[in-house]
Amino acid sequence: MTETSHDRLLIIDFGSQVTQLIARRLRELQVYCEIHPYQSVTAEMIRDMAPRAVILSGGPDSVTRPGSPRAPQALFDMGLPILGICYGQQVMMQQLGGRVESGDGTAEFGRAYVTPNERMPLTEGWFGNGDEQVWMSHGDHVSALAPGFEVYGTSPNAPYAITADVERNFFAVQFHPEVHHTPAGVKLFENFVRRAGFSGDWTMSGYREQAIDRIRTQVGNKNVICGLSGGVDSSVAAALIHEAIGDQLTCVFVDHGLLRENEASEVIEMFRDHMNLQVIHAEESELFLGELEGQSDPETKRKIIGRLFIDVFQKYANEIKGAEFLAQGTLYPDVIESVSFSGGPSVTIKSHHNVGGLPEKMGLTLVEPLRELFKDEVRALGRELGLPKHFIGRHPFPGPGLAIRCPGEITREKLEILRRADAVYIDQIRKHGLYDDIWQAFVAILPVRTVGVMGDGRTYDYACTLRAVTSVDGMTADYYPFSHKFLGETATRIINEVKGINRVTYDITSKPPGTIEWE
């Protein structure tokens, strides 16, 4: 649990894949919140944390199943404002004397519209133009309200879409206000936290001071090495740690042969020449590419890269006197996507190379000052620290680099083709003034060759796909709606300028169901 002087809100997670979006909406309202899996939440833990309010998340289980997840019963006697969402609503009803049932034709998935019964504090600012659009995703339904609750909104398949015991500040909704498919959902959160007494004191200015104090306390007079990739996350982490401990920080930039065109020189120039950080340029491409040779499974590739990162850090840590800490730019979404709660209901999506701790043999302790932050918060923190605008605004670049944009086996030939195609694509985006409108854009080279005709001759070269998405925090994403003119122009440039590619496609998959990266 984080040490903080901010008012706290506790989110009890029952395993929903979108629980993190609840946290995002609250952070946007400048409310500090922590997500804890239901297994770890006890009455004693809640009392120690002393939250000002509690939110119960959605989840995949059924409260009608014996042994399904519950909140501590004592929670409902603590006098705290509580908001239950979807499964969280059903937990509240079941534990407070109501009834939940399965079937009977009241399942509801996707877009729905809620009609008000009457107004109450949670729905202030809602229903001004009639029914409100929401996003439903439930099979079970509340069939009888707990004592003290009233109905404040209904939908065609959810007669208890919005319920509340206003006197006790207990609120419950069957839909998901955290997703963007519920356009006015943030207003419900705002009403809830204001009623709970939150003042909105969570800012990156305050976090900066708190994080610096925490780093100094953790590190003392010891030295830290920082894994610097040149991406926004590691850059902000390095700048923050440098502000806290100065020359006790040495950055290690690992050139693993999986970088974009000219990336190594740009990163070294930025941090060594302009920010006066101590930077070691670790040229280790032969090591990484050698071990990746012949590997095609995406999880295997990620794990090889993760292991080699640790080996490289160990190698250079041994050369730095007094180095006892390793700093990383791990973010909250990295942790959430990589770690399934022990015995819990959520599932692992993919492994991240920089999540999960370090082997004991390494002898270094992790410093992860951004582990609680989402990407947009990291960018705001970077602005607080004075990092250049063009650097803060860079699109995310994954630690495994081009390895996860090269499905199938990695070869040096494919990497060179991919680098050049990616450079052309990004150049096109910048020329058209679209870079800042896009969260992330890149090219992936596909593990197939296709027949083409160039100069009256037959070609048999690689196909590639363009990817560009819009997002706020990386947890969900939509494809960017390029014009056909832009796509045609870009495809022509890539085919003309990049030897080895004769076919270009555009990926229009959202997240979910896809991920942003291809592996």
Question: Can you walk me through this structure?
Answer:
With 519 residues, the protein is α/β, with parallel strands linked by helices. It folds into 3 domains: 8-195, Class I glutamine amidotransferase (GATase) domain (Rossmann fold); 204-392, Rossmann fold, CATH 3.40.50; 411-506, GMP Synthetase, Chain A, domain 3, CATH 3.30.300.10. Helices cover 31% and strands 24% of the residues. It contains 14 helices and 20 strands. It has helices at 19-28, 43-49, 87-95, 185-195, 204-219, 232-245, 263-274, 285-292, 298-317, 332-338, 375-384, 389-392, 412-431, 484-497; strands at residues 8-13, 32-37, 53-56, 82-85, 99-102, 108-116, 132-138, 140-144, 150-155, 158-165, 170-173, 223-228, 249-255, 278-283, 323-327, 365-367, 440-454, 457-470, 478-479, 501-506. The protein has a 9-stranded mixed beta sheet with strand order 2-1-3-4-11-10-9-6-7, with helices on both faces. The protein has a 5-stranded parallel beta sheet with strand order 14-13-12-15-16, sandwiched between helices. The two termini are 32 Å apart.
Shape verdict: globular
- Name the CATH architecture of the largest domain: 3-Layer(aba) Sandwich
Major sheet strand order:
2-1-3-4-11-10-9-6-7
Number of helices: 14
Please indicate the count of domains. Answer: 3
> Can you give the mean pLDDT?
88
Distance between the first and last residues' Cα = 32 Å
**Helix amount, in percent?**
25-40%
Poorly predicted parts: 339-357
Structural class: alpha/beta
